[in-house]
Write a structure and sequence with these properties.
There is one protein chain. Strands 3-4-5-1-7-11-10-9-8 form a 9-stranded antiparallel sheet. Strands 2-6 form a two-stranded antiparallel ribbon. The chain has 3 domains: 29-111, no CATH class; 120-223; 228-322, no CATH class. A hairpin with a 3-residue loop joins strand 4 and strand 5 (68-74). The chain has 343 residues and is α+β, with helices and mostly antiparallel strands. The two termini are 19 Å apart. It has helices at 4-8, 75-81, 90-101, 127-142, 185-192, 203-221, 228-237, 246-259, 268-276, 280-296, 298-321; strands spanning 28-39, 43-45, 54-56, 60-64, 68-74, 104-106, 113-124, 147-150, 153-157, 161-167, 175-182. Helices cover 41% and strands 20% of the residues.
């Protein structure tokens, strides 16, 4: 289970009411909770360290098993601490410094592998869009496309990651918090050509991962949308060219029936009954009834078309808004303005 505080982190104050776009991007994105592990063969303990199965250091949760050591920390917090740090592997060096001060020495930081990483972004939505997104997710939960943790968190589960949508509970909340919890990092790193080293992840990688998986989410939304062919049928039936056409087409159908050829002495109705099991009279009568009934409900069909088109526009509008873009402003991975106080 992910730690929500670690993923809100530096943005805790006013988290659900507003956002501050990250420099170089159209919205706020960041790396939150990260869990990394290494073998105990790569760890040395000082003589005076107090043996604990689990301990809390300065911003790091340290856990031990019989085979390894696990570190859980807020990546963004250490990223901010690393501003201006003189070495290349800044985040690993700051983690290392904290561990050494506690009597834990890591032989090789390259030996760590990522067990779990959480990539976050926030989007501001107007109340109508926010309400529509919640209803969309609720319906997808009913259809068992996503899972509802509660009325504020919905999860799309995949083999190597979970895509989560989280909402605040306040009356004036206007933000949706979207996060990808990656548990199969090696597969994702291979797919996106990323470094396997935890401290070499770049926000441009996070940008691509979030956008691609949001696109996959909206591809799944298609399963609960009205088929585009039906929309086209409604557009044809409600078009001005189809107005008041019933009487005219009824006469044409009678004409077409009179033109139907017989096969020798065998009447066309008999052929239909023998071959198809239904008379031509019944076929054309059914078509006649359908046209007549369609003419009667044309007004309802027009309203239905407007309703369905509105929902389609709402979905497309959401897809456009839930997409991160890069800005002309240069991206500086160690600069982040006004993210708020640390938790």
């Amino acid at each position: 289970m992910i730690n929500d505080l670690m993923n809100v982190g530096l943005r805790k104050e006013g988290f659900w009411e507003s956002l501050n776009p990250r420099k170089g991007f159209s919205t706020d994105i960041w790396i939150g909770e990260m869990v990394i592990s290494t073998s105990l063969n790569d760890v040395v303990f000082s003589e005076n360290i107090e043996a604990k199965r689990e301990s809390e250091l300065e911003g790091i949760k340290v856990s031990f098993t019989e085979l390894g050591m696990q570190l859980t920390f807020n990546f963004e917090r250490f990223w901010q601490k690393a501003k201006g740090y003189p070495t290349h592997r800044r985040i690993a060096d700051i983690l290392n410094k904290t561990l050494i001060e506690s009597g834990i020495i890591v032989k090789d930081w390259d030996s760590f592998f990522i067990e779990r990483a959480t990539f976050n972004c926030k989007f501001y939505l107007h109340s109508e869009d926010l309400s529509f997104l919640k209803k969309l997710l609720l319906r997808m939960a009913v259809e068992d496309i996503v899972k509802a943790k509660n009325d504020a968190v919905y999860v799309l589960e995949d083999y190597n990651y979970d895509l989560e949508f989280a909402f605040g509970n306040g009356e004036h909340d206007s933000v949706v918090h979207i996060r990808i919890v990656v548990t199969g990092f090696s597969q994702m790193a291979e797919e996106y050509g990323m470094s396997y080293q935890f401290d070499s992840i770049d926000l441009t990688d996070v940008f691509s991962i979030l956008n691609n998986n949001l696109a996959k989410f909206f591809a799944l939304v298609r399963s609960i949308r009205v088929d585009a062919d039906w929309i086209k049928v409604l557009e044809i039936l409600t078009s001005p060219q189809m107005s008041n056409s019933y009487d005219k087409n009824r006469e044409i159908l009678d004409t077409q029936k009179s033109l139907a050829p017989d096969l020798g002495r065998i009447h066309i109705d008999k052929i239909y009954e023998d071959v198809l099991g239904i008379s031509l009279h019944s076929v054309l009568n059914g078509l006649n009834t359908w046209m007549k009934d369609t003419e009667k409900v044309k007004s309802e069909l027009q309203h239905a078309l407007r309703f369905l088109n509105r929902n389609e526009r709402m979905i497309q509008n959401l897809q456009d808004k839930l997409k991160i873009s890069k800005t002309l402003q240069d991206y500086d991975e160690f600069e982040d303005d006004e993210v708020g106080e640390e938790f």
